[in-house]
């Protein structure tokens, strides 16, 4: 999602319980075709926790200034008896990016050679959190608000993804896979129901809901039935944390992953494994976690159904989650996914059997010719974004002058003039993209280099009777359903009954993919569908082709054009850390101390003399610890990766280079009474550029049980 983006353009051009309830009974004699080599891994990908614009809302000023939840890459590697393998990776990011895939595969091939992990058998999907630092894309469209390419962000992601795959590779052991699915009805709603209603009535009648409530889950065990990992897919946006947030967060899916993993790994080992729980993304294009609906801030009444405005103003129409604030909403939506996963995990019993296969091909989405069911030939278009794109959504408003549903001929003439000043779209593009009112002809914008991708990776995995489809963007509910039905039918025609899993935001980011009917309506999702009204038709044709190739067991003759590496063209305008200074204090000094005594359920707050977190990202480490004194030593009970802590960095003076860091700890109700302290870990940069570590600690304080009444 890209919300108030047009303003930016104008501005910048086990622990398992002993009861064993998760154990799956396995026969002493196993069939070879249901035994796989399975491995899971996890890696820290938390980027700069200060001064970097967040990727997702494209809101100027929404720059990172601390951490609520760390971001992780979680990897699953599965190989059959022949050694054929696939690697599925889920990253806590707004979207995957082509340059990330390029760099990850390059690093893996340095380690394992050219044939073990390739573009063809590695799939990198994103959870779609909107609360992570941006700047890791190579196309200009997605790095305008970050002031260009951010090397720190990219390095953190690539190193963490590679670590997660290496750990999964090293952890591979023989085991079993079990599939099940259910429905989760209280964690998502449709934020563009007017668009959904444009789809044929007979098609809509096939489904009970206007969002995809399907919850698909895989359980992985060793040969003795001990759980070693879990993966599920459910469609819901990562926007529980809204566009006022400035703390890094993995949002609702990240909370669900952490909570599920804590059931096996213990409470304090967040992000350390060995059990890994992946909460994957699916066809979430029009699916929001803000399930209380959109209403007008000034009147409290429902917004305009078609345009999502209040008296013509989009900024007054806001959707709300189920909690009292964004933190509680994140927890609630995450917890509902966690509980559904826990329920399905306990009863997953459909054994996956069969070989592993994969197909992959890059296609130029700006130049696709599609044969429709009625025999007509249509074409896709060079990429363009519409006026409705700039309006944003009820999850995060865009520029106030725009509104959703704007079609060609209805656009604001002043912004037509501004657009034409930047670049007038060609006549062919205007006709091809109709009825979209083009605001940014990004496919024709090549200065100073390419603004938007045109080569799209298309990919499918087959593991027994599972088919995992890598969707390179945000497919809406009905778009995803059509893809799933197409693939299921092709397999059925070959006598195969398969479970089709849609893995969204895979390998790259290309905005939205609506149905042609939704595209005609030109709400936000349609205005953000890059390649014109037949974008979905082109993907349907391509994935049908991949499914047939998969079934034929014939290698695709050409993987398609090679992805460009644009790193040498990247522009970086964001300055680095100049220096840090401590005035009247030493680095690490506790400026504000905790109280002497707290009860469980209260909040502890400590402020330290700090330095810029960009000096050291603390990957696989932490900026803080909460510690309890026990048996003559201090025991870590929480870090900056735990839900109940927050690390908040504040710049006191840019000129003087001073800053402070506040650590918050919301004491869990089941906290053991005792003596506690909070520590802070930082790195400061002096005037000549030397970086030095430091640390500080608060005074000790007592935590008592929650008083009874």
UniProtKB/TrEMBL annotation:
EC number of this enzyme: 3.5.1.23
Native source organism of the sequence: Dermatophagoides farinae (American house dust mite)
Binding site for Zn(2+): 128, 237, 474, 512
Keyword Disulfide bond: no
Pfam family, any one: Ceramidse_alk_C
Family indicated by similarity: Belongs to the neutral ceramidase family.
Domain Neutral/alkaline non-lysosomal ceramidase C-terminal: start-end pairs: 544-703
Neutral/alkaline non-lysosomal ceramidase N-terminal domain sequence ranges: 36-541
Domain of life: Eukaryota
Protein name: Neutral ceramidase
Top EC class, one word: hydrolase
One GO cellular component term noted in the UniProt record for this chain: membrane
Cofactors: Zn(2+)
Cofactor binding, per record: Binds 1 zinc ion per subunit.
Region forming the signal peptide: 1-20
GO BP terms: ceramide catabolic process; long-chain fatty acid biosynthetic process; sphingosine biosynthetic process
Keyword Hydrolase set for record: yes
Known catalytic reactions: an N-acylsphing-4-enine + H2O = sphing-4-enine + a fatty acid
Entry keyword set: Hydrolase, Lipid metabolism, Metal-binding, Signal, Sphingolipid metabolism, Zinc
GO MF annotation: an example: metal ion binding
């Amino acid at each position: 999602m890209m919300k108030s983006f047009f303003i930016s353009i104008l501005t910048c051009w086990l622990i398992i319980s002993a009861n064993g309830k998760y154990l799956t009974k396995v026969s002493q004699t196993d069939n070879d075709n249901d035994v796989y080599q399975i491995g899971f891994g996890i890696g820290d990908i938390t980027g700069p926790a200060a001064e970097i614009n967040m990727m997702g809302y494209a809101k100027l000023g929404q720059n990172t200034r601390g951490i609520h939840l760390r971001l992780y890459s979680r990897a699953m590697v599965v190989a059959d008896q022949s050694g054929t393998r696939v690697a599925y990776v889920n990253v806590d990011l707004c979207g995957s990016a082509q340059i990330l895939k390029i760099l990850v595969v390059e690093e893996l091939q340095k380690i394992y050679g050219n044939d073990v992990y390739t573009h063809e058998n590695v799939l990198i999907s994103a959870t779609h959190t909107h609360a992570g630092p941006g700047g890791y894309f190579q196309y200009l469209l997605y790095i305008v608000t970050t002031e260009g390419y951010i090397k720190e962000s990219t390095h953190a992601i690539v190193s963490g993804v590679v670590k997660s795959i290496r750990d999964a590779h090293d952890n591979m052991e023989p085991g079993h896979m079990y599939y099940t699915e259910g429905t989760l009805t209280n964690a998502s709603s449709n934020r563009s129901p007017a668009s959904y209603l444009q789809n044929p009535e007979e098609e809509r009648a096939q489904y009970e809901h206007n969002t995809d409530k399907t919850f698909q889950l895989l359980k992985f065990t060793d040969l003795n039935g001990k759980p070693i990992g879990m993966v599920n897919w459910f469609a819901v946006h990562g926007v529980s944390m809204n566009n006022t947030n400035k703390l890094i967060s993995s949002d609702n899916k990240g909370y669900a992953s952490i909570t599920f993993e804590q059931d096996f790994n213990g409470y304090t080992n967040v992000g350390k494994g060995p059990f890994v729980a992946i909460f994957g993304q699916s066809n979430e294009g029009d699916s929001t976690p803000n399930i209380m609906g959109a209403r007008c801030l000034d009147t409290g009444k429902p917004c305009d159904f078609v345009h999502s405005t209040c008296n013509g103003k989009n900024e007054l129409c806001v959707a709300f989650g189920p909690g009292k604030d964004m933190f509680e909403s994140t927890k609630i939506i995450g917890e509902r996914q966690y509980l559904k996963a826990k329920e399905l995990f306990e009863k997953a019993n459909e054994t996956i059997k069969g070989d592993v296969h994969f197909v992959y091909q890059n296609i130029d989405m700006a130049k696709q010719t599609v044969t429709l069911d009625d025999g007509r030939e249509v074409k896709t278009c060079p990429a363009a974004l519409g006026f409705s794109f700039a309006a944003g959504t009820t999850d995060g408003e865009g520029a106030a002058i725009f509104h959703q549903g704007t079609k060609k001929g209805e656009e604001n003439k002043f912004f037509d003039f501004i657009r034409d000043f930047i670049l007038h779209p060609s006549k062919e593009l205007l006709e091809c993209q109709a009825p979209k009112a083009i605001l940014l002809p990004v496919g024709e914008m090549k200065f100073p280099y390419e603004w938007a991708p045109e080569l799209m990776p298309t990919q499918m995995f087959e593991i027994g009777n599972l088919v995992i489809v890598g969707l390179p963007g945000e497919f809406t509910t009905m778009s995803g359903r059509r893809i799933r039905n197409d693939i299921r039918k092709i397999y059925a025609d070959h006598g195969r009954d398969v479970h089709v899993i849609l893995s969204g935001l895979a390998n790259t980011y290309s905005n939205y993919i609506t149905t042609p009917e939704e595209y005609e309506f030109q709400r936000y999702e349609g205005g953000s569908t890059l390649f014109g009204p037949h974008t979905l038709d082109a993907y349907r044709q391509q994935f049908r082709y991949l499914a047939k190739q998969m079934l034929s067991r014939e290698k695709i003759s050409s993987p398609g054009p090679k992805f460009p590496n644009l790193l040498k063209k990247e522009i970086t305008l964001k300055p680095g850390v100049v220096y840090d200074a401590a005035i009247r204090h030493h680095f690490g000094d506790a400026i504000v101390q905790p109280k002497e005594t707290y009860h469980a359920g209260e909040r502890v707050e400590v402020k330290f003399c700090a330095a810029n977190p960009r000096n050291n990202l603390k990957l696989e480490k932490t900026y803080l610890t909460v510690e309890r004194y026990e048996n003559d030593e201090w025991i870590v009970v929480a870090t900056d990766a735990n839900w109940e802590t927050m690390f908040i960095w504040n710049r006191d003076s840019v000129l003087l280079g001073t800053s402070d860091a506040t650590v918050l700890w919301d004491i869990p109700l089941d906290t053991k009474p005792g003596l506690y302290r909070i520590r802070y870990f930082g790195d400061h940069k002096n005037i000549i550029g030397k970086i030095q570590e430091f640390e500080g600690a608060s005074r000790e304080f007592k935590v008592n049980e929650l008083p009874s009444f």
